[in-house]
Amino acid sequence: MFVGKIIGTVVATRKDPKLEGRKLLIVRPLDEHMAAAKNDYLVAVDTVSAGYHEQVLVVQGSSARMAFGMKDCPVDSAIIGIVDSFVIEDIPGESG
Amino acid sequence: MFVGKIIGTVVATRKDPKLEGRKLLIVRPLDEHMAAAKNDYLVAVDTVSAGYHEQVLVVQGSSARMAFGMKDCPVDSAIIGIVDSFVIEDIPGESG
Amino acid sequence: MFVGKIIGTVVATRKDPKLEGRKLLIVRPLDEHMAAAKNDYLVAVDTVSAGYHEQVLVVQGSSARMAFGMKDCPVDSAIIGIVDSFVIEDIPGESG
Amino acid sequence: MFVGKIIGTVVATRKDPKLEGRKLLIVRPLDEHMAAAKNDYLVAVDTVSAGYHEQVLVVQGSSARMAFGMKDCPVDSAIIGIVDSFVIEDIPGESG
Amino acid sequence: MFVGKIIGTVVATRKDPKLEGRKLLIVRPLDEHMAAAKNDYLVAVDTVSAGYHEQVLVVQGSSARMAFGMKDCPVDSAIIGIVDSFVIEDIPGESG
């Protein structure tokens, strides 16, 4: 999984029937300092009622279909959590 | 998922029986400004009757087989929606 | 999926029992001009009796096991079509 | 699989019901010298009671759901072992 | 699939129960000239009794669980063959 920030929305009127009523959000991956790592994005289905600019946990691949309500849906990325804290206790300069 | 633009077609007469009658389109990934990010492409099966130069939503991996009519098909990318709007409300300069 | 060119063969006498009798080909990915994009390759199982230097359609991941005769086989890439034509109608200079 | 080092924790109060009670750890991939290869990370679910700064074995993709207790969970990365030794016996300068 | 060379071993005493008794090897990917492409590695489970410095065929993703004896195991990479020959008959300078 990785942590991203919600930065937008995708609207598609004509779409797969299983996507009806799903909220498709644009997520920008965040680096370990919770800053946008690069001008990158992906489209993920929302399963936790996430809001704009919230930091979220994203699962990818077939496991996105294990998210709540996503069984057998054609989705490869799902928002599965709102991140409250992301704490790194790495010791700089220490190898390994 | 990601958003791409349809830029061409692949024709393969000799192919897996499960691909008979499927439309195989060439999709170029688009960046967040809806411009072609790079000289890259993938071949995706069309499941929403997408047209040339339309902006489409693409799902990858095993979830491509969850798209309409694709059950048990040897496809790893499927077009599952026509994008009506792609709106980013990111605040430039704001970290995270 | 992507389009590649067959450039060689891998022979492995000692191998997984489910690979017995399978033809393992070396495939070089092609860019959108049907030129070799880089010195890259992958090994794919052939399911359409592809020949040397032919341009082929390759499927990856779990969907490779959906190719003809590949059920439950330990393969992550399969050749599933011979490409007759690959036509791009992109308009250069046009953004998006 | 790859070897990484645990460098932090993610807390998400609002999350997928199947993630309740799971420990979500931040893992930094290690290179072959067991040094941090780059400023990269991923979030993995812990299944072996791993501790801070321990070197761990990480499995990705659908196989993360095969880890102990993870059946049908929306996770794409799982910590499945504590690395005791990682020994390379490559001969430098030898091609291939 | 890709071809790699076995360069080491990973030992993990505390690990997922399904990994008990499995041999975890460090594999370095090889380029098309059978030279180490880069300082890269992955950890794969051995299913063909491969030996040090042997050139092996590696399968990734969920298909690694299709390798002999790996059903339902939390592995995303498996060694499934010993490479006897890897022959490329590409014609240099020929585009596509």
Q: Would you mind describing this structure in some detail?
A:
The structure is a homopentamer. With about 100 residues, the first copy, chain A, is mainly β. In chain A, about 0% of the residues lie in helices and about 40% in strands. Chain A has strands spanning about 1-10, 25-30, 40-45, 55-60, 75-80, 85-90. The mean pLDDT of chain A is about 95. Chains in contact: A-B, A-D, B-C, C-E, D-E. The interface between A and B is large, with 41 and 32 residues. Strand 1 of chain C pairs antiparallel with strand 6 of chain E, so a sheet runs across the interface.
Task: Give the helix/strand layout.
Five copies of one chain form a homopentamer.
Chain A: E1 2-11, E2 24-29, E3 42-46, E4 55-60, E5 77-82, E6 85-88
Parallel strand pairs in A: 3-5
Antiparallel strand pairs in A: 1-2, 1-4, 2-3, 4-5
Keywords summarizing the entry:
OB fold (Dihydrolipoamide Acetyltransferase, E2P); 96 residues; globular; five-stranded mixed barrel; 6 strands
